[in-house]
Amino acid sequence: MIRPLAPADAELFQAFVRGLSPASRRLRFQTGLNELYPALLARLTQVDQRDHVALAAVICEHGRQAMIGEARYAPSGEADGSIEFAIAVGDAWRHIGLGSMLLASLLQRARGAGIERIHGDVLWENAGMLQLAKRFGFAIRRHPDDASLARVARDLSVPARPSALLDRPITRDLEFVAGFADRDRHQQVVAAVERDARAGALVEGAFAQADQHLVS
């Protein structure tokens, strides 16, 4: 389930961050932290879900909730009124399409709020995030101030173009993929998406139609 992150999720979010590998924490926070210090934890969980939107991918594991992914955006403070986004996926949950689901949900929220420009600052070594951004139509450029970073940016006023050229009709599966209880079936569907270079536009279009299934 992908849902808004709430202040009551502070311990859940801290456990998620602690559970990331050191490399994954560095890619997400661009520093070598092991956990979130109290003020940062509060800032990242006590959000208004209007200007600062934070989403959590949560599963039930042994009768307890566990967080397996995070996506958020907040005002960038730049003159063009753009927002800045960030995404993290738990190491054990990579390569099954969760990043695509989180980014599609985030873009749908941003577009629904009337936001026109979005960007993210990504370490050049973060190949997975750069590939994900490219699939979703982001332009990738050098960061204006930091040579270690790429800036991925997209104009949300330009709609994504769903591909009509996929080898198999998987749009219906994608619209309801967040509701799959069978993880094996989930993997089959998202693997089909990940293999197609045009998957970003299709995923985004599918989740735009099924946002109520993704974010409650």
Could you give the topology of this structure?
Layout: E1 2-4, H1 10-19, H2 22-29, H3 38-45, E2 53-61, E3 64-75, E4 83-89, H4 98-112, E5 117-123, H5 127-135, E6 139-142, E7 149-155, H6 171-175, H7 183-194, H8 199-209, H9 211-214
Helix pairs in contact: 4-8
Question: What attributes does this structure have?
Answer:
216 residues, alpha+beta, 7-stranded mixed β-sheet, disordered C terminus
Structure characterization notes:
- With 216 residues, this protein is an alpha+beta fold.
- The protein has helices spanning 10-19, 22-29, 38-45, 98-112, 127-135, 171-175, 183-194, 199-209, 211-214, and strands at residues 2-4, 53-61, 64-75, 83-89, 117-123, 139-142, 149-155.
- A seven-stranded mixed β-sheet has the order 1-2-3-4-5-7-6, sandwiched between helices.
- A hairpin with a 2-residue loop joins strand 2 and strand 3.
- 32% of the residues are buried.
Q: Going across the major beta sheet, what is the strand order?
A: 1-2-3-4-5-7-6
SSE series: EHHHEEEHEHEEHHHH
- Low-confidence stretches are 162-183, 188-201, 207-216
- Could you say which structural class the secondary elements and strand pairing correspond to? alpha+beta
Rg calculated over all Cα atoms:
16 Å
Main pleated sheet? 7 strands, mixed
Mean pLDDT across the residues is 81
Tally of DSSP helical segments: 9
Q: What's the number of extended β-strand segments?
A: 7
Helix fraction by DSSP (H/I, runs of at least 4): 25-40%
The termini sit apart by: 9 Å
Assess the beta-strand content as a share of residues: 15-25%
Shape: globular
